[in-house]
Amino acid sequence: MRLAFADPRNLTTSPLNMNHGRPAPDVSDILPSVRKRGVLLTLLVLETMSDGSAVPDTFEVVAGRRRMHAAQAAIAEGVEIDPVPIAILEPGDDAAAIEASLIENLGRLPPDEVTCWETFTRLIKSGRSPEQIAATFGMSDVVVKRTLALGGLLPRVRNLYRAEEIDVAIVRQLTLATKAQQKAWLALYDDPDQRAPQGAQLKAWLFGGASIPTKHAMFPLDAYPGQVVADLFGEECYFSDPDAFWALQNAAIADRVEALKASGWIDVEVMAAGDHFYTHEFEQVGRKLGGRVYVQVSARGEVAFHEGWLTRKEAKRARASAEREARNASGEPPPAESLRSEITGAQETYIDLHRHAAVRMELVNNPAAALRLLLAHALTGTGHWRVDGADGHIADPAVAESLAANSAAEAFEARRQDTAKTLGLEVAGHALVGSRFAGAGAAFAKLLAMSDADVLDVAAVVMADSLRIGSVEVDVAGAWLHTEIAQVWRPDAVFLDLIRDRETINAMLREVGGRKVAEGNLTEKIRTQKGILRDFLDGEGDRPKAEGWTPRWMGFPASAYTRRPCGPAARSRSAAQTLRKVVRAAPKSGWPVAAPEAIAAE
């Protein structure tokens, strides 16, 4: 740095001066003293360069712009003043020049915020590090980083704030945005038919939905493949890729759910993301009374586990049951009625109807089995043996339409009509059993005229016609006859529509799509998961078609997806216990024996 004097008329404002390009400043406060005594304080300047060489006696003011303007104003008034003192900085030290300009302005009158932001950014471009800037100006690293982030905003955004057209909250949130996002926000701001997001909506808009803080992650942050964005004006960091976050978060939730079940919790319900858990609607009863774990997942990724809760109605039933057990001193575990069934009543009706239809047709094709089942009904008076037909009124039109599409139901109706014609009856789609003959003698006479084979065929139809829907007998016969429900039925829209349980639909999704798909959609709404399952069943949406998939509820034997009550699964377990005895006794009877593993499987 060299000291010298310069003619004010040979001075201009340096591009490195933080106020370069701005209107001439107000110098009325210092002009009187300049007229009288000239400029006493040294101006920091750089030599004016042209074609790589310094222009003699011509300088650019880095710090001291107001003094320069005051001296030039005095000369313009005709006042003769002495050359002004200058300190000539070395060429190329732009960062030092910018710092000098900023220090002078900070020491005099603080420049406007936006100018400070822009000057700090220019210092970085000139080679200064944030740490060096913090040391020079006595600021903390956090303050410098915040200022640099604001200085990195698009010029239009900075100017809008400078003109007080947007507030400080908006510019701070826009520091989280990419340049492309800032341009998109400005387009919305300029569009008279749309409203640019502000406040919490702006942060959600920037992150493609809800802003998700890293502190809500249940997985190690180094497993996240995307970018983490730090909020310099808060204490949070956010995930820039919500889809990548939810894939990892859902997998972590699924692992925690499995761990809870392994520790003894029978029922763990993962709520849809964004659903609230209102404690006033529930009561905490603990594990012993059958309380379940509710997993609450907020739209911002926060996960809360509410252990041992039931709805108030369920809690009341559970307490009443516990009191009965205490009186009986039975020591039994929590009663099944305190646990929520994994299937609804309508779903169970649907399942029972389709499984019943499949077994009825198997009985028709196996007259010997049907005859024995018929005799069992006649001896014990079980089921419909009054005698009533199984085809009652189906209240739900959709379920009735679904059953009509079942090929087994259609085939059985044809066989029933043939048998009725053989007996000289008109059933017109109604049950064969219970039809009015002219007394039992007339029916007996008809049967006397028939061969044994024909009688067995009639017996099979009669038994199938009176087999009670939803009975253990359906499961016993279905397991013994190796009924393959997939040959006559496949999951339809009605079946999926009747599913109401989140844990169950996710378990089904795991069966057809694999663990990754199931865990990736763990917190999605039930409707969304049903749609994905349907895509797999139909082979649509770029998903491989799940050929021959049969839900556990529908098979023989049936099984459950959870540890909670399930009617078809319970009846299959009861049937399996019964058939184990048959397997042991069968070698002496000469009766065809089904494979033990097929019969006893649960």
Your description of this structure?
The structure is a single chain. With 602 residues, the protein is of the alpha/beta class. Helix content is 49%, strand content 10%. It has helices at 31-37, 65-76, 94-108, 113-125, 130-137, 141-151, 155-162, 168-174, 179-190, 199-206, 242-262, 312-328, 345-364, 367-380, 397-404, 407-423, 440-448, 452-466, 472-480, 493-497, 502-513, 515-520, 526-538, 567-589, 596-600, and strands spanning 2-6, 11-13, 43-50, 53-63, 84-88, 228-230, 237-239, 268-270, 282-284, 292-297, 303-311. The protein has a 5-stranded mixed sheet with strand order 1-5-3-4-2. It has a 4-stranded mixed sheet with strand order 8-10-11-9. A hairpin with a 5-residue loop joins strand 10 (292-297) and strand 11. Helix 3 runs antiparallel to helix 4, helix 13 (345-364) packs across helix 16 (407-423) and helix 16 crosses helix 18. The model is unreliable at 106-110, 584-591 and 593-602 (pLDDT under 50).
**Distance between the first and last residues' Cα:** 92 Å
Q: How many DSSP-defined strands?
A: 11
Tally of separate helices: 25
- Average pLDDT, rounded to a whole number, is 81
Q: How do the strands of the widest beta sheet line up side by side?
A: 1-5-3-4-2
- Fraction of residues in helix: 40-55%
Radius of gyration in whole Å, from Cα? 42 Å
Low-confidence stretches: 106-110, 584-591, 593-602
Structural class call reads: alpha/beta
Molecular shape: rod-shaped
Tell me about the largest β-sheet: 5 strands, mixed
What portion of the residues fall into strands of 2 or more residues?
5-15%
